[in-house]
Structures are given as structure tokens and as C-alpha cells.
Amino acid sequence: MTSDGLDRDLFACARGDAKALKRIFDREAGRLTAVAERIVKRRDLAEEVVQEAFINIWTKAHQYSPERGSARGWIHAIVRNRALNLLRDGRREELVDAERLEAMREAEQIDHVLAAFAALDRDSRLRACLDTLDETRRRGILMAYVGGYSHGEIAGRLCLPLGTAKSWIRRGLAALRECMA
Known about the structure:
The protein has 181 residues and is mainly α. The protein has helices spanning 3-14, 18-40, 43-60, 71-118, 125-131, 135-145, 151-157, 162-180. It contains 8 helices and no strands.
């Protein structure tokens, strides 16, 4: 639909036509969410920005003037401004905090995996066999079988090439089987 259709819908919103707002949403929400996500770097916050922007579009549609620019430009400017305001209002710290939270969860999961080894009875055969492996190989096996990590995840977390991680786990399991026999 042309910008003229957006113009008509904005004028209809200014008159209280909720169906016009829905038409704008149906046409523009995907693009607007992408714009907001490029700014705030998180999908959930981008969706929040777009929701708030549509409230602004609904309540301020009477302020739109085609002489000052296109309807699409006006709508996109509202989204950009909402996204930038979200960052300025301190949500930037939430972005950093979310990253830190993910890192803390990751560290907590690895600690849980390593705690499973520490919780083994000191006199158990499995503990003795695991003790024969070097630290990195033991961690890899524990991450795979206690933590449920894939070979790729293990390689990434241990900073190893994927093939190396796979072969270390395979050889470590072979050594454990031999030791346990």
C-alpha cells in the first residue's frame, strides 16, 4: 500500500478509528520491530518499543502533518525515538545485566557439572578413574554426561577445536571403560 494509505489510516486514527490502527499495525509492525531491534539489540525490548510506539501513534495521530513528511517516516520516527529513549532511560544497563546474567548462569551450570565430580565418594571407582584423566578431558566428559552439553558447546566453552573436543571425549570414555573394567 502506498504512503497515501498510511496517511488515510493516520487521519482515521485521529478520528478514533481503531481499525485504521490495526491496518497500520498489520502493514508496518514487522519492519518497525526490525528497526527497534537494530537499536536496542534485543527482540523482547524491540517488541516493547513497538507496542509503546503504537500507543503513541494512536494518541498522537492528530499531530501528523503530510506537509512535514511521509506517514511512514512519521511512524518510523516514533519507533526510533522510543527505542533511543529506552536506551537513554537506563535500559542499556539492563542489556549489560542480561549479558552478565547469562554468563553467571553459564558459570553456575559448569559449577554444577564440576560439583557432581566433587560429590563422588572419594573411594569410588568412578572417582578414581576420572582422577586419572587430565583436567580438561575430565571437564569435557563431565560437561557431556552430567551437563548434557553437545560436542560443539563443549568445544566452545573449553576453547578447543570441535574435532579435538570430540576425540578427547571419545578417548577419555575409552580410558574410563578400561579403568572401570
